[in-house]
Amino acid sequence: MDEKKLISKWEKKIKFLNQPDEELYKSKNSDLIFIPIFEKFLTHFLSIKYHQKVLCIGCHTGKWVHALDQQTNIKGYILDQSIRNLNIAMHIYPHYSYQIASSQHLPYREKKFHYILINQPFDTFFEKEALIFEMKRILKKKGRIYFYYKVNLFLNRKQQLQSMFDAAALEIENITHYRGIEIYEVKHKGVA
């Protein structure tokens, strides 16, 4: 291999590694094995009513949103940082609403969504507190948020997470262990 090709490959690698952390989270390949598990849980155990508004954060080309839509005919909204994933999803599933993700502000009006589904391990978000407050703002009164973590038997995440959700007047209603992941269901405090 000649020197120019080696330099070019090295420059691409350095450019990739020097991206902001918010963009690098998509590159955690070890997390990709949990996406189909979370999708399977949602499609088998989550009962969404006809035309409810569902925000999906981290679309991974929209396949799992489409799986939910095929069951119930949802009003799907997809939010992702990856322009490439959004472009692919837009071409395959043009009937959903698409937006580029920002950790500071979710581009939706207050109390819009029945469900917010995060298809990215929650620990990959760098500004969790800001995201939690934004999700609370756009979640309907009886709405639910679902997200997951890889199971870790040595950590008690519930206490750590609950303090973050308490600050936003949200609470963890349920934690389900399913095929190597912990799935969290979050709701507004005091709402049945």
Question: Could you list some keywords that capture this structure?
Answer:
38% helix, 192 residues, 7 helices
Write the layout of secondary structure elements.
Layout: H1 3-17, H2 21-24, H3 35-45, E1 53-57, H4 63-72, E2 75-80, H5 83-92, E3 97-100, E4 113-118, H6 128-138, E5 139-150, H7 157-167, E6 170-178, E7 181-188
How would you describe the overall organization of this protein?
It is a single chain. The chain has 192 residues and is an alpha/beta fold. It is 38% helix and 26% strand. The chain has seven helices and seven strands, in the order H-H-H-E-H-E-H-E-E-H-E-H-E-E. A seven-stranded mixed β-sheet has the order 3-2-1-4-5-7-6, with helices on both faces. Helix 3 (35-45) packs parallel to helix 4 (63-72). The protein is globular, with a radius of gyration of 18 Å. The mean pLDDT is 85.
Radius of gyration: 18 Å
Percent range of helical residues: 25-40%
In the sheet with the most strands, the strands line up as 3-2-1-4-5-7-6
Number of helices: 7
Tell me which oligomeric state these chains represent. single chain
Shape: globular
Average pLDDT reading: 85
**Terminal Cα separation, in Å?**
65 Å
Order of helices and strands: HHHEHEHEEHEHEE
> What is the SS-derived class?
alpha/beta
Largest sheet: 7 strands, mixed
Write down how many β-strands occur, each being a DSSP E stretch of 2 or more residues: 7
Approximate strand percentage: 25-35%
Low-confidence stretches: none
